[in-house]
Please model this.
Amino acid sequence: MEQEKFKELMSQDNSSDFSADNVFEGLMIIRKYCPGKSVEGADHDVIYSVDISDLINAGITEEDVIKLRNLNWMLQDGEYLACFV
Model:
């Protein structure tokens, strides 16, 4: 997957699946592709995770990108994932 495709998928309208803990569920998806990484930083009410290039290089699927988007994960600075907690 190319970075532009990843960004396109993340920018589409989401259906917000909050049936579970969206932070935990998103981190589990990220862990599947980047086992040694998870939360890379935090700010007030938001956590920052991996660079999208790490996920792309690890082979993330379009389905999992859409799941992250629907779990309210977002792109921060167009480079890495973030989620409000």
